[in-house]
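Checklist before submission:
- one chain only
- standard amino acids only
- sequence pasted in full

Submission:
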Amino acid sequence: MPAPSARRGGSKVLLLLVLVAAAVYAADQLSKVWVVANLEEYEAVPVLGDVLQFVFVRNPGAAFSLASAYTWVFTIIAASVLVFLLWFARRIRSAGWAVLFGMLLGGTLGNLTDRLLREPGFGVGHVIDFLSLWMFPAIFNIADVAIVSSMGLFVILTLRGIGLDGSRTPAAPRRSRRADPDGAPDSAPNTTTDPS
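Returned file contents:
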């Protein structure tokens, strides 16, 4: 049975995960409501000149509008990811991992909401995308930003050796530059001369 302090720590981390997911989801859905209400499809609105523009598109496929004929497949995948995240969340004890899973959960739920509730129908709805960066080949949304950011955080946490429980993997000890393949230091160079 987990100690009370461990349970309290787990509750705080779970609350952090939920708050991050809720913030991402709210930002994603509110921004999409604003875009649909205020922009015409394919209209480009400069935000930071050509560097950042709002361009309203309805995306039936995945990134880069790939596989647009298989919208229902992405709905099933997103729903499966959502179920896994909810099931797995109770194992997390690290604030960093809670933020990561919160961003991933909020982003996945944001795009899944579009798939389920937007036109042309349930399960095949088109995702609202509107963020366009100069020289970037795809238009995306806040949910996408959160999902990609969670992947970046995953790399950082993994490289730093931080586990789901918050523990850190100790760094491997450095080997001597003069070590032989078996790990033993090289013997001192022979400086004696052969008398013969």
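Reviewer check: DSSP finds four helices and four strands in the chain.
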